[in-house]
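Fold this sequence, please.
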Amino acid sequence: MEYLIRFAQIHESFRRAELEALADLLHIHIVFSEYNQYSPHCIVVLPDEAAACALIQRSILSQGIYELWGSGSTYEELHGDIARRTSSQWRVYQSSSFKFEIQAFQIKRSLAEQAEIIQSLDYLGFQGPIQLKHPEQTFSIFEECEWGIKDPKRIHFGRFVSGSSRIILDKFTLKKRQYLSTTSMDSELALLTANLTQAAPGKLFYDPFVGTGSFSIACAHFGAVCMGSDIDGRAVRGKNGINIATNFQQYKLEDKSLDNFLADLTHTPLRQGRFLDGIICDPPYGVREGLKVLGSRDGGGKEVVWIDGQAAHLQDKYIPPKKPYSFERMLDDILDFAVESLVDRARLSLWMPTANDEEVELDIPTHPFLEVVSVCIQPFNKWSRRLLTYRRLRNDEVKLDQSFKPKLLGDGTTANDLNSFRRRYFEGFKAGP
């Protein structure tokens, strides 16, 4: 059965990836009959109405799903398609309360024009009461126009089936969150990333760059149990009793928070073994300050410092020494950690920056045991960032002779030497000589 999905007009490159991730999570077979990244509508084939409801009710980028009754390039074509597809269904809704609505894209219809369009559908023969609030059935006409051209290039007609999860955005907006920092991930993107990583009840998720817990909150909302770590102890501990745990309490998700701890990915205290169902992270880009990991620059140990009879490194306010870290090496380390800790078919979602300049474009990191599922792009002014989603392959799915990119250790010792994106960011992404 064909259904029309109405998208929110934002994050266009993420739309299909989200629907495919949710269909895979819910074991729903989905076929895209019509899809254009820049169209507000797409048409999909789904098994039944129950599958349509389950799919769309998890979606963040969709507004609703409709049983498709007809499509056409003109209203004459639309009416003919409606009769061909659904004439046997009209009597089912003959006595139901109903309303019609027109959703026009890149065009505005006057009330008189809307009334004329709705009157052209009188052959449907609905006899039930017209009810503008809470009708039993809502029927929508979708017009898609080119900018500045009044005649639609595509028209659809459908029966409303279910709304999406976009209604939760106001609940999770950062404007209302108690514990924040300047790097807290936007709530819409956090929820979207959780969908792409397939957060769900019975799963254990981990964010190795947890910050203020934006991803953990999003995954917990969808039922996953979450834990996180960060190299910055100030982010983990919070201030004046306000911390990551406060955010979980705010949304009544305390039972989904396992713990948060101080660590970096190269010195993780987590046990070895494949036990994670998802890894979700937005690692630091090293712009405001260079990337660092725990350790000394010379790689040697340091003499213990004693304060009031207690070793300094055992005190709560102790800040461990750090050394510069290559951005490319960090990406490889994240993939290595995912391979060693994710169960079969589990997902890793990773944000990484990329400039809109081919000279500084960063390659998508790869690993033979990780399949790239989707690459979504969020553009900014002079640069953009990508959300990469991987699936952990079974060991028997990996070809032993598959080529593998060697480690990129980075040359130099300064933050700019170790991070080409940081260097070009402060150069304004100017083209080279």
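Residues 327-341 form the longest helix (15 residues). The CA atoms of residues 233 and 316 lie 10 Å apart.
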